[in-house]
Amino acid sequence: MVNHATDIGRESAARSRILDTATNLFYAEGVHAVGIDRIIAEAGVAKATFYKYFPAKDELVRAYIQNQSRQGRAMIDRISERSARDSILAIFDLVADAAAQPGYRGCPFLNAAAEYPEPSHPVRQAIDEHRQWKRDLLRGLLGADGSPDPETTADVLTVANDGLLVASHLDKPANLRRLIRETVMRILGPSAGT
């Protein structure tokens, strides 16, 4: 008798190993610098298994980006119990938290976008979907915070976020958390209650 649940679990474990291996390598070394053969070897899977789940490298890269997006959304979901302003500040605190981690190489979305400059490419579309989700989230929080122009302010915060992510990687400022907080507070201005 064939146990399909065991087969499915083994298959999803192989897919997860491939994606986890690719995630670590892509983030540490860059997407284009890492070849399929290396991912297969380090994940400990057969070439046929790899291609069963990811018929092309770009499909693996897209899955990597989508997985990074899911993880980012989950982190932000954990801070949703706060006021709108506190939620915005907590979202930006995540930049400082990430930058403090060993092996931090900046934003995985910005890093991948630099390697996929064509806006119509499926990898770039996955990046754009994440960025649009975050911009929409900020716009909603800004509206709840009483911002007079949540659309423009969300765009400004997005640009500031990109700059902070790049600076946190390249410059590694010792006062990053304070710099982030100061940047966001200046963009937000006084709260509606003051």
From TrEMBL:
Alphabetical list of Pfam families matching this protein: TetR_C_13, TetR_N
InterPro entries: Homeodomain-like_sf (IPR009057), HTH_TetR (IPR001647), Tet_transcr_reg_TetR-rel_C_sf (IPR036271), TetR_C (IPR011075)
Alphabetical list of PROSITE patterns matching this protein: HTH_TETR_2
The protein's name in its UniProt record: TetR/AcrR family transcriptional regulator
DNA-binding region: 35-54
The UniProt record lists the keyword Aminoacyl-tRNA synthetase: no
UniProt superkingdom: Bacteria
DNA repair keyword on record: no
PANTHER family the record matches: HTH-TYPE TRANSCRIPTIONAL REGULATOR LMRA (PTHR47506:SF3), TRANSCRIPTIONAL REGULATORY PROTEIN (PTHR47506)
Cited SUPFAM superfamilies: Homeodomain-like, Tetracyclin repressor-like, C-terminal domain
Keywords attached to this entry: DNA-binding, Transcription, Transcription regulation
Domain HTH tetR-type: 12-72
